[in-house]
Amino acid sequence: MKIAAVLFLFSVFSSSITAFPHFFPNVSSIPPSLLPNITAGAWDSFNNLSGCHLGQKVPGISKLKNYFHYFGYIGNISKNFTDDYDDALETAVKNYQLNFNLNATGELDESTVKQILKPRCGVADIVNGSSTMNSGKAASMTGHTVAHYSFFPGTPRWPRSRRDLTYAFEPRNQLTDDVKRVFTNAFARWSEWTPLTFTESNNYNTADLKIGFYGGNHGDGEDFDGVLGTLAHAFAPPRGLLHLDSDETWIIDDVFASGSPSAMDLESVAVHEIGHLLGLGHSSVEDAIMFPTISSGIRKVELARDDVEGIQVLYGTNPDSNSTTGPSFGEREMSGAHVMSSVVVQIIFLAVGLTLFVL
Ligand SMILES: [Zn+2]
Ligand SMILES: [Zn+2]
């Protein structure tokens, strides 16, 4: 019993530090009694800013400026942000609205706030001051923008000599085969359309692509922010790092039921982040995998025409594919899933762990 108690205490202590990711095979595996517990998202306070516009001073605007700074819409500044809705913020809001196909009013109207609140990829929409999305591209006279795939500045890609890439998982995450299989499937979505192949390696240090779940500050200057907010990020070639927020409630099965305020489909996020690993930036095409936001409870795993066109500019087509029988574009599996607080989930895991130790 003494050893069990020590082990239990150790598990509590270590779990708060390493923030083990929470996985559920599907919604029905989450205890119904815990479903009503929904943790507030990282950006919920932006709801209070709905209707704000140039010239106003409202508490919370400084946090919104940080948000726009993080995603590249406001450049580097030498001092802390104020709560003034100034010209820089108005320009940022306008560019954001252009990128997300909203009316470019520069005001925080309801539809803009709704979009801002959506969980999203942590990779910036505007890198080094140049937008890779709509706001950086010429709009036609009719107001319709030329919206399509983009690349990182300098168009980094894996060289021609590196078409067979290896990937490995952060050993400390101790991921199960079920979780690893999600990534296998996600990689297959890209290899289907390109000459690239992806093979799992047991050697994390030498793998081309390194995948890991981390919480908060994890050493690369791109801190995660708890439930919702940013979900994951990945670095352009040849860095090969794909990081996911361990504080999310990740669903790994492909069956999503209805109603899911905070459960995220792991494969949907993995397919998007692999796009970054291969050199794709964000796209303003809402159906595209490379669109920056994804709503909770949504499953979106199939490449759109925009994604395929972008990746084939970088790598060419799959020499083994039969173009007449290839998969159709634009099909989406969309549905919802139930959720629960990640904190409560962690408590369940610990309780199960204690039971096992006692037994
Ligand atoms: Zn992204
Ligand atoms: Zn990271």
TrEMBL record:
Necessary cofactors: Ca(2+); Zn(2+)
Gene Ontology annotations of biological process type: collagen catabolic process; extracellular matrix organization; proteolysis
GO terms for MF: metalloendopeptidase activity; zinc ion binding
Keywords assigned: Calcium, Glycoprotein, Hydrolase, Membrane, Metal-binding, Metalloprotease, Protease, Signal, Transmembrane, Transmembrane helix, Zinc, Zymogen
CDD domains: ZnMc_MMP (cd04278)
Chain sites annotated for binding Ca(2+) 3: D225, G226, D245, E248
Residues noted as binding Zn(2+) 1 in the record, renumbered to the chain: H218, D220, H233, H243
Binding site for Ca(2+) 2: D208
UniProt record similarity statement: Belongs to the peptidase M10A family. Matrix metalloproteinases (MMPs) subfamily.
Xref: PANTHER family: MATRIX METALLOPROTEINASE, METALLOENDOPROTEINASE 5-MMP
Name under which the protein is recorded: Peptidase metallopeptidase domain-containing protein
